[in-house]
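note to self: the first set is below, dont mix up w the second
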Amino acid sequence: MAWSARWQSTPQAPLWLELGDHSELGDHSEGERVGRGYGGWWTAGAFDAATRRMAGRLRGAGLEPGDRVLWSARSSVPALVAHVAALRAGLVVVPANTTYTVRELAHMVTDVRPAAAIVDPDRRNAVRQASDPSVLVVGPGAELPDADPGPLDTAEPTAPALILYTSGTTGAPKGAVLSHRNLLAATESVRIAWRWTADDRLVHALPLFHAHGLCVGVYGTLLAGASAVLLPGFDPAAVADAASEFEASLFFGVPTMYHRLVRSGRAGDLRRLRLCVSGSAPMSVELHGAMGDALGSTVLERYGMTETLMNLSNPCEGARRPGTVGFPLPGVEARLTDGELSVRGPNVFDGYWERPAANAEVFTEAGGGGRWFRTGDLGADDDGYVVIRGRRTELIISGGYNVYPTEVEDVLITHPGVAEVAVTGSPSEEWGEVVTAWIVADGVPPSVDDLTAFTEATLAPYKRPRRVHVVDELPRNALGKVLRDHLGRWPGG
């Protein structure tokens, strides 16, 4: 049985509250208008009925189990209806960033060969330009006639459910194929670890096309039988207001969001929440401290990735250590080999879409416990808690010594003239590589000499920046993670 049939809500229980005007996306008749803007509470029963009807429309259009469907939509209930309907019909959903250009979409379309695309109205032209004319392109409301859906939720546990594309930091993005079993295992692990119950209500401000917002926020809400307030995007005031007005208990964000909450002065409004979780990028110890002061508790930092979804987490109950990502979630095993983190468990994907050579590089055969997946992340064991030091491909080797960019960044960000910073290695005939700091200044930018003096007591000489570039902004992905591989060819410089 497909995992998508496993939501635990009673039919009358509230499930989604959609805020913002999405009237152009299709039928909202199941929702009841509420206080502000367009939207309403959808019950689990209404959501079930809507996904059944949508699954019938998709099957009536000729789509068959195993067909790939490109899915690119902003946060809305119609988008979720279409997504879950596709899974229930046995289709394989391929999420795409809503800001992708025609070139970026063309790579995905050429690679995965979708039979259909479900996209917001303003994205249709881009998808059509990137696709073969035979690809069916519809909106989240799926302007298709109703049809008998037939049997639903019949996909085998090992059947593909999602193809999530990696960020492409080591070449062209690759599609990670995740099965229904992978989705259920990863979602169940965080439901257990974070004590997620039907009484919880999540403030959801993450993009749906990313694993954080979709596979953690959406799937977790469904599996726990909980409820969520869907915001059209992230805004500190909107998050704080929603947490209070709708008596929320959970918020999931990325460090950039927490930084903006602190700077806005609204972080303290989340004090009533029982749990705030951060992921998708490292949270600095300094930001941990600022959020802790505002919340009266420590943000729970966890670690996951596209190919495995959730792997490690600080405890929901117990000591949460800033600068660490905790220990393995239920059902997950982890080990460090030559400093590189590997994981295995039912959450780990089976491989990249049509990339046998890439699969051979990342999987290590093992005994009865299954294959180990090499994450490419460098880590260390801090008394049972894992510390992530950065990507193996981002490791700087200067004069034969290893330099971890995140360690240097954590020191430089405390300089009063540094608002944001990223650290990379630059080629050097003498040293092999030298540490290079890319800085967004706060006032007068510091020089190399300034940073050398500033780090004298905190960093060994080989870790100190020898080059400094001042930029207007740092290149980031959709969730705010700095793309170090883009530095040096970034127009913000």
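second set (the one i keep forgetting abt)
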Amino acid sequence: MSQGSMTKPNIALMGSRGIPACYGGFETLFEELAPRLVELGFDVTVYCRSRYTARDCRKFKGVRLVRLPSLYAKYTETPVHTALSCLHAITRGYDAALMVNGANAIFVPWLELRGTPVALNVDGIEKQRAKWGRVGRAVYAISEFLAVTLPARLVTDAKVIESHYRRHYGASSATIAYGVEPRPLPAGPTLAELGLRPREYFLYVSRFEPENNPHRVTEAYRAVGGGLPLVMVGDAPYSRNFIADLKARSDSRVLFPGAIYGDGYRELLSGALAFVQATEVGGTHPALVEAMGYGNCVVVNDTPENREVAGDTALYFRADRPATLTEQLERIRRNPDPFEWLRAAAARRARTRYSWERVARRYAALLSDMTGRAHL
């Protein structure tokens, strides 16, 4: 399209499992971002994996959806789908694309050589994730280098990750964090089904993978007194043995309802006594931002990226020392009232730093600059 065209900038979002979100952070990013980009004057297409988006779902809040298959195995699902998405996108001639997941860097030239500039959101430092093994970590190490050489723009979601790329590669990036739009719900069917009452359970939400430390959380909880449940929300498609062992080692107070989205997730966030964030790899973790936005007392693994997000509005522990988590949860269980100020402080911090409207405006400015055309 010509520079002087008055048509809307035509943007593709790819690399995630798709929307409506039913998996993780990138999916929620696209679900929240894409409709807001439409409102800001973009024509937006999101590429979705056929397993995660219903066959008859072709539009979502003004966003066009393209469903494509993949080869559903741990090391092939993302690259196969991204490759097919790029082949399809080449025929559409998008003005720009936002691609997520650093492993997809190798596909960036497919689009850029056909005139579509790409912004690549690399998420965290994926080569540090234990789940990948040596081959997977090697792929992500190579992808880091490609991510700073191939895309038109590099996007990071935390200052810690921005610093990593600047220090190791001399690369600049646009730092755009995650967002939250709190919509609290009273106790309803989800709490009833799980036998929970407001402010009488602890909540953990993450994919059940080693670097997210669900095993250390349940280990720490064995030493917490009382009968309050610990609700472990999450799943992971390629970690069945790890999950089975996790459940076998947990005591009877720990509940495993699986992955929960939408109103059920909002209900759980709204009613928790405290929220445990145990991740140790990555940038801005969506679940932490969301828990803060919903006014939770957040108990957070002490890493630089988690400190960047929560600041002085959290209680901290060390995941490699489960007793430190036990101590914090026991303090809250015995006397939660002194920690009410943390709830309000976390909500204020999320509201001022992590709103979806702010995130969408940042992406809109980036994509407009890439296309050389202002959005309408």
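remember for set 2: The mean pLDDT is 91.
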